[in-house]
Amino acid sequence: MIRRPRRDGLPGRLSKWQRWHLLTGHHYGSGFVDEAAAREAWAAHREALMAYWTRSDLTPEDESPEPGGPGTRPWAWWRFEAAAEPRRRLGGVGLGGADDPDAPAWRRKMSFGVPSVWSGVDWSDVPVYESEPAYLDRLGLLSDEERRAIEGKDWNRIGHSLEDMRLPIEDRAPREPGYHSRF
């Protein structure tokens, strides 16, 4: 009997677009037929994707995105595994869709543990959230290996932030390895 390969690429090798989708949340026509297929792909490839994403060598492999580095997690981890508790908001002005219980579902979406839709942002005082390493550490999810890898680094410069969005690229603060501003 001849078996056709599954349309979503499972359970074998992920396509480069499926890999991008699970690591970054960007789905350039990723080939997952629905969220359930993406969740199944994450479960099947979690170990390899986590090992790639959290490594200290931040050189991308093949056509993969730049790894996040130790103390961070890929998009699929935040989507499918993160605790119900979001990252703590530390300050700033603006209303994240997830902060408004009356907002429609599309406005309440989260990305990397923070709201992905905003209104009323004051670009001189943007919303600030705890760093990814601080969140992982607070919930007991930061491994000893990751802790050693980021020891002595500014944890506030690791992970995702809205802060740099208000500045021209040339004026942005230098980043630690693994710092991404994807908002």
Distance between the termini: 48 Å
Q: For the residues shown, what is the average pLDDT?
A: 78
How many helices? 5
Instruction: Report Rg.
Output: 17 Å
Give the key terms.
single chain; 183 residues; alpha+beta; 2 domains; two-stranded antiparallel ribbon; disordered N terminus
Can you walk through the features of this model?
With 183 residues, this protein is an alpha+beta fold. The protein has two domains: 1-82, no CATH class; 85-183, no CATH class. Helix content is 26%, strand content 7%. It is built from five helices and six strands; from the N terminus they run H-H-H-E-E-E-E-E-E-H-H. The strands form three sheets. The chain has a two-stranded antiparallel ribbon with strand order 1-6. A two-stranded antiparallel sheet has the order 2-5. The longest helix has 19 residues, at 35-53. The radius of gyration is 17 Å and the shape is globular. Mean pLDDT is 78; it is low at 1-11 and 164-183.
Concise summary:
This protein has 183 residues and is an alpha+beta fold.
Compile the SSE list and pairings.
Layout: H1 16-24, H2 35-53, H3 75-80, E1 89-91, E2 95-96, E3 110-111, E4 114-115, E5 118-119, E6 128-129, H4 132-138, H5 144-150
Antiparallel strand pairs: 1-6, 2-5, 3-4
